[in-house]
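User: quick one - fold this with heme C bound?
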Amino acid sequence: MISAFKTLTSHRGSLAVVAAAILPLTFAGPLAASGEEDDHGGVHEFHETMEELGEHTQRIVSAINHENWEWVAREAEAIAEHPRPPMEERQRIMAFAAERKAEFQEYDHEVHAAAAELSDIAAKGDGREVINAFARLQTTCLDCHANFRDDFRQHFYMDKDAH
Ligand code: HEC
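Assistant: Sure. Structure tokens for the protein plus heme C:
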């Protein structure tokens, strides 16, 4: 046990070194210019959630390739049950969406529904149906992005003086 623990900690130590080396590069992206790369314009949790959704969908692709339908079901369920950002952020986002608030919420709702459907279908193990359901899920992500992503980024990440 002790030696396993040691291996783990030394492994962690080296990971930390690697992370320290990589982080400055990651933050040297376009957002660094705003000086607020860390807080994502007050919608940090929302942004984190999006990155997580992206990771879940990537794992779904892997799971499909491995024909591991249980894994697909788990990842889809995680999307269907993804946490909502804190109240404060939701209010900021709703203020941004303004008269398109209902539309924004509808896209969110569609993602939850499509992910829940994918999870159910994956549990039955029909690969072709799983792929169709996954395409429907990806389409719901795409629809919201097509309608909101640019404006959202403009509003929260670039247009610092406007509010
Ligand atoms: C209700 C609208 C909405 C839905 C639904 C939605 N997104 Fe997003 N997503 C956004 C907005 C707005 C942004 C831009 C904000 C940002 O990048 O932080 C974004 C950004 C992203 C990003 C980019 C993050 C980055 O680092 O640039 C990823 C990845 C992402 N979404 C994945 C997904 C996936 C996968 C789904 C579906 C399972 C999904 N989103 C559904 C609104 C949505």
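One thing worth noting: The pocket of heme C is lined by residues 47, 50-51, 53-54, 57, 79, 104, 107-108, 111, 137, 140-141, 144-145, 148-149, 152-153 (CB under 6 Å).
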